[in-house]
Amino acid sequence: MFRRTRSPSLGLGLNTLFLSCFFRPSKFPEIESELARMARDYPTWMVWRIGLAFTHADEGRKAEARREFERLAGPGFDAIPVDGEWLVNLCMLSEACAFLGDADRADELLELLAPHADRNVGTGRVVACFGPVARYAGLMAAVLERWDDADAYLAQAIERDERMGARPLAARSRLPWTSPT
Fold first, then answer.
1. Strand, coil or helix: what is 98?
2. Which of 16, 38, 85, 141 could form a disulfide with 149 if both were Cys (CB 3.0 to 4.6 A apart)?
3. Domains and CATH numbers, the chain
């Protein structure tokens, strides 16, 4: 998409921004081929492969989403480097996990996300903000059918979204309460 920039870092940042601007990546057919290219060209940046899992999930392609998700999840999500992108990578993986309804992996993700529930997650020096970690913890609690925990995490996410003035994120945080996982 943004291959013609003079700076590789700017191109990566613009691709990240493009991906994050849309909560429904399947509405943009070119995004899958771009994510596949980025995953191939930048294999150490897990966000691109995770983006593929997220996109497959968004398109309702369970087998492809499962394949990418399992490739990344490994034992205890050890394949995800603990670096500046670790938290955003786990949050994006939680979206695919919720789509797949994978309770075993949701339990692992919730354990990793819960200590960070009071934070917002961003990427690329905050090129993109994905909102409160509490939202993703709430998704995982919902997969586990821990409804009280899910409600508490999602209420925390909405409160944080509204405090930031991030109405689109607040609306997205309300989605698990209004539509099935």
1. helix
2. 141
3. 8-178 (1.25.40)
Per-residue CA distances from 97 to 32, 41, 120, 160 (Å): 19, 25, 20, 23
| DSSP label at residue 165 | T
How far apart are the C-alpha atoms of 26 and 21, rounded to whole Å? 12
Cα maximum dimension of the chain: 50
Residues 181, 49, 31, 3, CA torsion sign: positive
pLDDT tens digits, 122-153: 876 656 788 899 999 999 999 999 999 999 99
Q: Which residues pair with 116 in a beta bridge?
A: none
HSE, side-chain direction, 13 A CA sphere, residue 22: 16
